[in-house]
## 1
Amino acid sequence: MVDKLNDDIGEEKRLQLWEMMLKLRLVEKKAYDLFLQNLIKGTSHLALGQEAIAGAFGVALKQGDYTFCTYRGHAHTLARGSSIEGVLGELMGRQCGLMKGKGGSMHLTDVDNGVMGSYAIIGAHLTIANGTALASKYNKTNEVSVCFFGDGTTNIGAFHEALNMAKIWNLPIVFVCENNLYMEYTPIHEVTAVEHPAADRAGAYDLDKIIVDGNDADEMLRTAEKAISKAREGKGPSLIEAKTYRHSGHSRADPGKYRPDEEVKDWMENKDPIKNYRAKLLDFNINEKIISEIEEKIKDQVEKATEISMASPIPEIKEIYTDVWANGGSEWHN
Amino acid sequence: MAQLTYRASVSLAIAQSMRKDQKVFFIGEDVGAAGGVFKATVGLLEEFGKERVMDAPISEQAILGAAMGAAMTGLRPIAEIMFSDFLAVCWDIVANQIAKTRYMSDGQINIPLVIRTANGGGSKFGAQHSQSLENWSMMIPGLKVVAPSCPSDVLGLMDSAVKDPDPVIFYEHKSLYAFKEEIEQTDISIPIGEANTLHEGKDITIIGLALMAQRAKEAALILKDKHDINAKVIDLRSLVPLDLQTIKKSVIETGHVLTVEENPRLCGWGAEISSLISEHCFKNLKGPVTRVTTPHVPLPSADILEDNTIPSVELIVNEVIKKLKGE
């Protein structure tokens, strides 16, 4: 039962979180539809089912903070305030895309909104996120850097190098492991020495062991706010392990058949963060009309953004030769 | 006028850049309190303190990742990778992240950083601490590749590298750290992408880099004194950007070209230069462009083995005589 008297989050923030998560869900669903229509090429890694994590951080972070995500990064990019057409347009290879088709689904970047890139080589961005955190410390400014990654990342060297460096230099950074139980196609427990791939390693770097239900949006928000405050106050890094589950396969090419039907059904029906949060909003006596209005608003935004993206021109071929160098070009000899 | 070693010019160049710009900081393993394993960064910690001269753990990925992230915010890090061979353990950060992020982000992100690294053989360190790896970075779009051959070039090119808005890999040659030069002015700037002529001549063009440029110059002096051959020696100074115009101008004059590379044969930078000369100067050539490289083997350690693997002055002299006189 909800404790309405001691509600530390409040209606305004809850509706903000609801709107955020719904946007992430509906844009990912639209991305899936556009793939089926062959309007999006290449690959994509959807975060359907994992929206509470990116959503909570999106609500908790401030303008100016830095985020780094993986190739499964559409949701994390949108959560910082990037436009829907910027994301869908990039997936469709259109000029309205965040990088005008230069990067694609796995590399969404939107510096104006603090999205410092989506990284497709496992582990690398943990070390790079340390760099923006180091810059904040060096410049004596108070931005926080947040780095999202999957459970599989905990078994690559860069994870360990990055955690050690963040700790010894007391960097203002939050590492967020989204443990969706599968490292691509393989159950994470089959290939990891410890039960909790991130949290059980925290002690090795003198960090607290933090495990959170990543599908409980309220708990996720509380955990995010606490770690962000700690970093902003100069009290150093945190490592959070958020348990979650992806509703679809690893990537476009993967139907996810390696997962037991009962397990998938349980997560989809009983642990879906969106479905459960809607019920929670009603438990808190939030007017269903307000909830539905937000749903209609987001649906409308997604449809409009899709139209904008489809109408946006494809890139000009000359763009191949631009922006290798800071002078805008790609020349390598005189 | 003062005599300066290549080693001392490295620490001076870094210090000069750090004095000029508060955004410049320096990070690496054993670079601060220890002054660097080659003693090329002595005095920096004392002058700039721990906030700007950071001793890092043996974590090459974390070092370059931190440098990259800081550069993304507008800082201008200089990161040291102790031996260029160690680039192999952080090559993802170099080749996939630092090199490509500007392009993939459609120019949203600049990465103004310098990666300094001790490169090349001559110290009998064996195959994993002696490689000449400029060509690894040359083949990755998005990286600038600099390799100075003398103390004044270290000073001038480091100044430009730190100011450059793009990532620069700065290959210092281990066998040149003791190399001395009379220097009038230390606070100098040399644009990246301008080759330097170390010896004038109209009979043949010898193209080298770093230690090989110095050996080519020594060879040119012998060729002139003892064999009446006037060789023009071009020190490329940087592979990316490449000063093709200086190469073309000389090839048009001489018609003969020899590249001198310290790397193993396959895919060495001389192959690209040879291809460019074929495309741009074919009608000016009086014979094939030829290359002196190390054999296609890992570098051995023993004196006699290493000395006979890396191109020597004598080998360069003999190759030139063979080309021009058919001997």
## 2
Amino acid sequence: MVAVLLDGLSWLCLVAGVLAALIGGIGLLRLPDVFSRMHAAGLIDTLAAGLIIVGLVLQSPSWTVAVKLILIIVFILFTSPTATHALARAALHGRVLPWLGDRSSPSEGAPSSKA
Amino acid sequence: MFGFTALGVLLAMALVLVRGLAGPTVYDRILAVNAFGTLTVLLIAVHGFLSGRPDFLDIALVYTLINFIALIAVTKFAKFAHLGGPFEQRSWSDV
Amino acid sequence: MINISLLMIMVATALGLVWLRNLLAVVMFSGIFSLTAASLWVVLGAVDVAFTEASVGAGIATVLGLASLALTRTEHEKRTRVFHLPALIVVLVTGAALIYGTLDMPGWGDPDAPIHTHVAPRYIEDSLAETGVPNIVTSVLASYRGFDTLGETTVIFTAGVGVLVLLGRGRRYPVANPRVAAGGGPGRAPAAPGSEGAAVPGDSGEMRFKAILRVGGKLLIPPILLFAFYTQAHGELGPGGGFQAGVIFASAFILYALLFGVPMARAVAPASVLRGTLALGVLIYAGVGIAGVLLGGNYLDYSVLAHDPVHGQELGIILIELGVGITVASAMMTVFFVFAGQDPQQVD
């Protein structure tokens, strides 16, 4: 009973994680500028990674595997916001201005100073 | 089921790769590389379970750590066009 | 299925590499190429190769590529519009010859293929009994093929020495005094006018925000170092070994240098120490070989190192892996510090 429940929970996590990864990928493609795309990338780094890793932890055959998986997600949760934060600062520093509604059309791409 | 997860992750990798190729700014590419790295880590982890040998997570672990270093280096280069700025001249070593 | 998808991603990345003209983007895409290649190695079961690709290709190669971009100050590849017919012919002929060469190769997984009949069966069947090391890759590299690995380690040593000889002199920042730097609060110095630009929006809380990267990055350095030691020690049992451990160890220092500047990192790992350890690793490796000769065996024959040949093998493998790790770590650090440590104000 518990095994079936864990199995179902793990599949649920994996499917939700894959959906989050795909939504993040689509968002990374469709959103208009770097700063909004960061949100999509954040979805991949947090929700997708977290759910998939949790799903795998529930399936892990031994505790070493589970510990390594948990270490992976802990490191991802440490590194990725830090890197994104540095990236956002660098983008601001590089005079990339956030896209603010209709003032510039998304089809022309983000207002950019650096190619 | 693991196969489905792996394929979904691969599809997301392809989407992210397109953003990396399209740019337009260098920061978009850095963002894409970051997301691609995370997805690669997930793919390696899922593949371990798919092939029934989930003992090779060390590689995924290395990725998480090494990818961060590469990203910091790229971000620093994009911001300062230079990697080894000294601590005293404050603005260089700060990313 | 996963193989083919990964190969397609690799082809797309390679085409992107050819197409892109921004060299920074090219460096990043070679990183992506490495990531994909390493996933492919994992899928194919070559975990030791994947480990190396992960630590070297995705991390160090990207960082060194960027460092050389910073040195040469070129960000855009020159556009050449000349159509070079002889070059195209040479490339096509070479490609055709290579593809023709693959036709004679045995089928994938063919049990009668030369690679499976020559020495591989002995490695697979006897290496555990002969060396006491469960990871066949490690025992082959370190014991059966010890000479090759000695050569490779020497190549890395030579690369480090070459970089030192060519670029190691002058034009460097002075080494930081860590006490002054840590106590004097360099990060708290008033912003130099024009350096960051007061017009940048959202940059007002600058001092506080900078701390995020410093603290976040600093927190990661101990786990990276610990992981390097784990890789070094675990190389006999699982994927890993001296080479990968050395690269990971060096990348922790590179991260420190990225966050706090090369002078601070040089204060932690001074050039004189690195020069010493660079040679020390090769010395340990070659010394193990000499010790074998002195104890009455052949060069790099570890069986005579202990009373029991298997223990001797194990001891020898551990020692030479240590030597490889030390040399690789020092070489990587040396190359990075020399590349990134060039003062841009003095380069011209």
## 3
Amino acid sequence: MAGIYIHVPFCASKCAYCDFASFPKEIGKQEAYFACLYKEMRSRFAELKEKRFDTVYFGGGTPSFVDPKYILGAMRLIKECANLSEGAEITLEVNPGTIDRNKLRIYKQAGITRFSIGLQSADDDLLRRIGRIHTRVDFEKACDVLKGYNLSADVMIGLFDQTKEIVKNTIDCAIAGGVKHISVYALTPEVGTPIYTDYLNGELPDGDEVADTYEFVVGYLKEKGFDRYEVSNFAVKGYESRHNLNYWKRGEYIGFGVAASSFINGRRFTNVFSIDEYVHFLLNGKYAEASSEVIEGDDAKFEFLMLALRTRDGVDLKVYKSVFGSDFTADYSKAIKSQSAYLSVTSDTVRIKDEYLYVQNHIILEFMR
Amino acid sequence: MTEKLKKNIRNFCIIAHIDHGKSTLADRLIEMTGQVSARDMQDQLLDSMDLEKERGITIKLTPVRMYYTAKDGNEYVFNLIDTPGHVDFSYEVSRSLAACEGAVLVVDATQGVQAQTLANVYLALENDLEILPVINKIDLASADPDGTKSEIEDAIGLDCSNAPLISAKAGINIEDVLEKIVTMLPAPKDADDEPLKALIFDSYYDNFKGVICFVRIKAGSVKVGDRIKTFMSDKQFDVTEVGVFSPGLTPKQSLSSGEVGYIAASIKSVQDTAVGDTITLVDNPAAEPLPGYKKALPVVFSGVYPLDGSKFNDLKEAILKLKLNDASLTYEAENSMALGFGFRCGFLGLLHMEIIQQRIEREFDIEIITTAPSVSYKVHLVGGEEIEVENPSRLPEPSSIDYMEEPIISANIYSPPEYVGPIMELCQEKRGVFLDMTYVDSKRVRLQYKLPLNEIIFDFFDGLKSRTRGYASFDYEICGYEKSDLVKLDMYLNGDICDALAIIVHKDKAYVRGRAIAEKLKEVIPRHMFEIPIQAAVGGKIIARETVKALRKDVLAKCYGGDVTRKKKLLEKQKEGKKKMRRLGTVEIPSEAFMTILKIDSE
């Protein structure tokens, strides 16, 4: 089982907190970009004949912002060149205001099964302050268009003057739109983004306030039937994102496009960040890898636990043994002992207790050699 | 040999306020007289050089021998003896001066007479040195040579009519300085016929030759093969090498009165060659030593522990090696509940302490934790016994103490008159007793205070600097012990007493300081998975409390395919940070926390 990730680095505009590979001014390069993307896909898939793929994820940027024919083209290519499972989960990220019935018709043709909507907040004033160009109504319209599909929504916390009431309204709005999966991310002010200035000026809530909001969200979503299956992800049973779960199980994935990362055959590599550079490499018949590392031994074990401990189910001891040939509880007996107050240990799993999931770095650190 | 002619020898030092151009002038003199470039000279004691340069001070003394053919046609031998530039080393300075007949006083023509100028001049006069004033930096636009001259004449009473006007940096009039050294500074007395008296003004340990003693021969002579002894130690040694500094060690057959040079005699420890001691011959000993010897006693004590407990032996090695070259450094092993095995080290002062700590970290690459400095208290027990306590955590139970005494210093503070108010306020806060105030001149006041040393080590320098915008300077000497109402202030972390954080304070200050330390610790201790109470207590009674709240958010919001490497890097960074922490029970404390509690008064 492996995943496919396709990066679409185009957007209508850049949000105030965004430091991702997304370039609103370079939409004119989409034709060249996708030509190269297809080239990369054909070439990689030819080398990965034996791999079986179960999920596809179009992320961005705003994948719904580009001409849908490019999405369709990518999916056709996958079906033609890769071994894609029957019933695969195929997710497309969309932003409210960039989706309509015409686009949906083509997405349907492409075989998209799941839409992840960038809601962030249902408060128009807050949306404006973080540089989003849509409104609550746009979200409601998008939900209407996408009715009947498996829907997910992204919600941000840690925003300016964000009250629990605003967060609650946002969640209510998402649920009313038919969303069955919600990702809740705390804003991370990155150096170089406009919001970093606000952060430096103390206009954003501090860690304790964010933790308060987060705790509220966990409780409220639980009430609404959403279970926290990963520190930032909540779903109605059966609606967990298979694509993302694969990351946390340290499964394999192949990423295409600028800044996309892959982890396959024990090697993790990441493509260059700029569109021009990417296109340049591909046109010259080369892959556009900017960095690459082979992960073995203790590093591999650590990655496995670091990712697994993000999830509700934690480290699956049987899986660990089958992957590494050793016992997790023996490999990490010291850390398990020193952190026992924060861990729940059974004969099958080791996981972080619910109430400590949000301070997991501190715990995971003790597992680091 | 030329140097046999005593009248052709000039032994002198250069004294100046900081930044007035002492080192630059020394470099120029060396360049003008000869062979060696200033850079080569600095290689011989490379170890301490980085630190010295960084701090703009001289720690180790580096004598240089120069040859100068004067206008009178004679060749002269100049021995320039460098002096350390800090109050911690005032005793070493006085011994260096005692090795000279004259001093070149450098005064910056743009700044005039400054505090350190005066302090140095007084020291030189105490040692009966002839002083040659030199006005430096005359090439600068703001230079006022005439004003500076009359200032020196008024403030110090030195005749400046013949003072060379120079620029050491631009190399102007250096020749004049060389000539005036010949004509104005006296030659040493010829005392070759008397028994040997060699003044040790510095020494260092050489792996091959043993201790190299820097000496000024005051009387008699010494040669290879002589059996020697010092007055303060009963050991005897056979001289294996004597020589001069030109500027490296240059062996000679003998040294005789008036000369400055070195003696090596397979001496194993600098302990046996204390600065200020007198070397004489076993066969024909001098009747009495040269005057002025004082045993260098440490006055500031601090616990030094390896950050990584397994590095104890490395630390021991490092301290032993430093001790080889530094007779004033003392140490004894101690064990702290909080920090494990380490050493209680004694230093001449705060700067000496800082230098030793930095050398351990830099030259021996051992990360260390140092506890807040303490002084040595005399504790009189109920039974009449008297003990000395240098480690606050070793203070006996209050009920068994009759009374305590603390070391007192007498301090001279030089400052422009406008800062007298703030300085007096500071001294009052520091339990100072006013002794005297005199106008050195219209721009300079000398304040004399008696102060407890224990207050000086708590941030007195910073307080003085900030209240006088850096214009005041300060020197002191220990003048005795006085009875005082002192208590031990204990700190508790998460309910456990932390012996390494204990300090001894005056009773009236315990509350304020306890509260300040608790607040400071709250700032420096990072949040943990649980809440950490910080308590300050005197005699088991809690006087202040702060709380480090439990950590609530420590997670990377997103961790998808591309984030794994990033997250790993983040954790690695956190791990690095943790390595700088010391775990006390369940609490991790950054190593600098033990020192930050000192910095509480400056805010």
## 4
Amino acid sequence: MEMKKMITGINITKHYGSGDDKRNVLGGVSIEIKEGEFVSVMGPSGSGKSTLMFALSGMERIDGGRVTFDGRDLGTLAENELADLRRTGMGFVFQQPTLMKNLNILDNIILPSMRDNRRNAAGITEKARQLMQKVGIAELAQRDITQASGGQLQRAGICRALMSSPGIIFADEPTGALNQAAAQGIMNLLSEINAEGTAVMLVTHDATIAARTERIMFMCDGRIVSEMRLPKYSGKDIEGRVEKITAKMREIGI
Amino acid sequence: MYYRIIRNDILKSKGITLTTMIFVAAAAMLVSLSAILVVNLSGAIDTLMKQAGTPHFMQMHSGELDKPRFTAFAEQNSKVDEFQVLDFLNVEGTRIVIDGQSLADSVQDNGFSTQSGKFDYLLDLDGNVITAADGEVYVPVTYMKDGSAKVGSTLAVAGKTLTVAGFLRDSQMNSLLASSKRFLVSKHDYAEIKDSGSTEYLIEFRLKDLSTLGAFESDYTAAGLEANGPTLTYPLFKMLNAISDGLMIAVILLASVLVVIIAFMCIRFTLLATIESDYREIGVMKAIGLRVSDLKKIYLAKYAGVAALGSILGFALSFVFRGLLLENIRLYMGESENSALALGCGVIGVLLVFLAVTAYVNRVLTRFRKIPPAEAIRFGTSQEQPAGSKRFNLSGNRLLNTNVFLGIKDVLSRKSLYGTMLAVLVISAFIMIVPQNLYNTIASKSFITYMGIGDSDLRLDIQQTGNIAGKAADIAQAMEQDAAISRYAVLTTQALKVKLEDGSEERLKVELGDHSIFPVAYSQGNRPAAEHEIALSAVNADELGKKTGDSLTLMIDGEARELTVSGIYSDVTNGGKTAKAVFTTRSAEVMWSVIYAELADPSLTGSKVTEYADRFNYAKVSGIDEYVTQTFGSTISSVGKASRVAITVMLFINVLITLLFMRMLVAKDRHSIAVMKSLGFTNSDLTVQYFSRSVFVLLIGMVLGTLLANTLGQVLAGVLISSFGASSFKFVINPLSAYVLCPLMMAGSVLIATIIGTAGTGRIQISGNIKE
């Protein structure tokens, strides 16, 4: 069955600075992400991976081109409409766990949902507890964020992203600050979420992480220079998948 | 990197840098001005009192005077250097007409005198002793200042016309607080107008050694010499001369302290905001091996520059305003001899401000030490751990809007950060409410009972005349037959001797009569009801060391009689030293008499005042409101003005401090703001969060400030009021202004500043701030 387009980016350009300091970060990127896809974007530092993610999620206004999400042109949406979209249709996971220091872990997870629906606090809390159970941090609910490990906080961040049952999760180097075991745990979790139907777009420069996805885009100097597809990861032969990716990288010279 | 930081700092906070400089300049100017004024004032007073030969001891007296007895006393007393009795012709204000305008509205006791022979000279504006020619009059300098007279004006008194030849400085009566004013005429003219008023005597002494003044006063009292008027001494004259300008200096100094505090807060919040924004760069500089002192130097240089410029500007400004403020001192007292010293003190004052500012900057910058380079480079913001408020959970919140919850939660978890803001708001509420309550209190009609004045409609004063008791009885009889008067009370003051525990005697002014008709407020105990009871004014009770229930021995008609202190009350009249009792004496030695009356129809007060004033021209008749206005009108209006100024200044400070605080907060929170935005919180959500923080702190601040104002403020205002005789009072609060208008104004100013100060949240980009 043909999957429905979820995000379409056409000829996206973005620059920072002006005059002599002007730096083109995205130089005409076109991209499509379908419902339920597991996509990764790879590339060296400064290639524009994160900026592309910010552009597709409406966190950064673009200078040229067009981005649509579920058929809505992000360029025509007001800041508040973009915020609503992020809160209800997307989830985010960053390299460092972006949790509020003055809230405990449970409160951090329910935070965006409580904005719209605090009357249903009981229902929201129940859902959060189920998600925490699922990702293995149920016992941390009342803890401060200083009382949890990086991996646990990242799991909490994923729970928060899942609270609104979004169509897509954007993950920017989600394992970048974690040790290998914790990183594998997070990737297992993201694979599971994807298997349940949520699209995942992750940005990474680590081939072993990208190897868990089905579609890998390679970026260099603000452009997508190549793309490859892999079969769904079954838990076997990760080395073979990594080898294919690194061969591709050598081929395109990044 | 050094220059980039300084450049960024100045560019980012042009307005604040300028504001800081202006505050430093204002503080430097005020401190310099007060130093210059203090030196000039004390110098000018000394010069004036030296030139004039101000008496060391002066007793005012009206009525019969046994001059040879005085001369004998002065000759026999070894402490006396010189002695003289001056005549002072007290003339009713309506009878003195300058250029067609009478002095009827003057609250001063105006009178004429001739130049004295030995000391207590009246001086011209160059400090020379004046000799008035026939037909000439010299007018007190205060009438030049208020424009009543100029050189060449004509002054008519008792049918005689004199020409104003100049103005005079009077070392004892210059001050507006001294209630008499002397006009100088020639001996010949004085003799001609002598019958137009009543003569009072100024019995003056100069002592060989001023330090024997206390002993001399006892000698004078012990000798039982005439004394039915006020007694004044050299230190008192000095204080009278210093007090009005001294008060101004005190206010300027207070204002400068306030301004320095505001400058400190500006610097603190700007610096903290700068440190927060440059957190990563500071970490990098520390990481590459720069010393904390190198980093401090950059900021210190900037603020030392700002402080130096501000100080120089302030010092220059002090020159501009110096003339204006010294004008009054120069006019009333003449030049000071120590102008170089004044300049030196001004410079020292400015230097102190400069040093205080740089020392403060240095202190704030010790924060650099606490920045861990690794953390700064990694996170780019300080990773301080929130404290407390663990039980205040979002998951348990059903009541508050999530944004409001987040705002309050933030305040609770960063208490020390918001503490500064809270302190400003508490102080601000306090300073806004206390003067206002004080004003409402002293302006309210019931307040007069705290001042030792009965709450009546009319007040008749009979003093400095003969046969006071008889005259009072005449008036009482007239009132008895006057149907318009519903009740009245005659109170007669006599000076009685009180025996102290050490055996010595002191004179006590005791007001005799029925004190139940127009009672005053008693801070302790009750009014005297029985013959053996006496109530003391707060100042007297304090001086005599008596409290309610204690006994006191009074000499009544030559016999010692034991009385019990029934109560203590506040009094601002007669220097606050009075007593009240109901017994009668056989003595006719009455100092003065006051008759209070209440009218059946209070609207008739005006006509009754006129009627009684016409009928009993020896009595000073006033409606009680008028009496209060005359006595305390200027105080009431000054307090009113001060309260309005306090409100305006505090509102301005609220706006400034909130604005700076919010900007610092936004700089500190930019990572959290970016996270919030990435989670789908809108700019208006963030505004509501910051608004909630402000409102929460504001509410606590206003409640604490109001509570403090009504407790500590009341005590402080009580201390202020008791300094002029009244004690134990409660604020009369106008609920509309204290509980509605003031909080509304405060809330308005803080919330507007919050909106402006947090406008920057909208400009914070997620992409630039979320990556740590």
